[in-house]
Amino acid sequence: MWVRLRKVVIWLLGIYLAIPFLVKICPAIQAKLVFLNFVRVPYFIDLKRPQDQGLNHTCNFYLQPEEDVTIGVWHTVPTFLWKDAQRKDQMWYEDILTKHKNKNIAHNLNLFKAHSSSNRPRWGDSIGTPSESGMTYDALHVFDWIKARSGDNPVYIWGHSLGTGVATNLVRRLCERETPPDALILESPFTNIREEAKSHPFSVVYRYFPGFDWFFLDPITSSGIKFANDENVKHISCSLLILHAEDDPVVPFHLGKKLYNIAAPSRNFRDYKVQFVPFHKELGYRHKYIYKSPELPRILREFLGKSAHHHHHHH
Fold it and tell me: Which domain of life does the UniProt lineage start with (predicted)?
């Protein structure tokens, strides 16, 4: 019995010690872990009833072509998954169309699908591996595509969790070229991927391992993954809303608060609203259930109403 137990312990210890070296030698492992969080089936959601769907780890776009219709566009599916997603979503697709019964939207959705599934050449990405620059590039394409079709309707960008990294990369780009969105909403955001990886529950096993940063964080950075929300917000000028639950076990509440504290005093927000909405831990929304909050529609109405007002006032 003891011999066997000793064997198991030695094995486990061996694996425990081997993993950091493996990650260091092969940084792609860390990159994969980061992006694994990302892969979800695409959906369109109705903002009037956000409780229908979570928006996990995604970066979403919203359009309001008419008072009672909101289209959300989800874009972070890596190209190689599109073929698969397209088969799966036929039913989902028809369901949404019958819900809206609007020719124009049906047309737009069709266009969007065609646009997204074309295998565009990416910036030096090997096929099938998502990368931060590739995602930003895709997001930019999608934004331009939407903007070209949205007329004077507001376009909001919403990121959740890792998707906040894509969202701030995108919005920073948009602000730098002076075509900002009407608002940016970050749900459960972090400051940057290093600080997030450090506080992620997965890292608890190694948090006190000597050289944690060198073994686990440097490979992420060296793979070109930064998702530097804290840097990006300094270059963003549009209304910003941050939502975070106090009991979030994946992205600790203090990181969302820290991001707000970096953004709020920034000069580029002086004409825009910057708002932080905490959700009390009693509510139990944790990392991905903020969308269940009955308060959310009111929060969004007030924030977007004010941001629209701000915007017109600004021009």
Answer: Eukaryota
Q: Is the dihedral of CA 102, 107, 109, 110 positive or negative?
A: positive
pLDDT in tens, 222-278: 988 999 999 999 999 999 999 999 999 999 999 999 999 999 999 999 899 999 999
* Chain segment 103-142, per-residue pLDDT in tens: 344 334 433 333 333 334 333 333 445 678 877 877 787 7
| Tokens standing for residue 312 | 């017109």
Rounded distance, CA 315 to CA 79, Å?
38
Residues marked active site are found at 161, 248, 287
pTM: 0.73
216, 26 contact by CB (below 8 A): no
Strands of the sheet containing 59-66, edge to edge, are 69-74, 59-66, 155-160, 183-187, 239-245, 274-279
Structural contact between residues 246 and 189, judged by C-beta atoms closer than 8 angstroms: no
Question: H/E/C letters for each residue in 120-177?
Answer: CCCCCCCCCCCCHHHHHHHHHHHHHHHHHHCCCCCEEEEEECCHHHHHHHHHHHHHHC
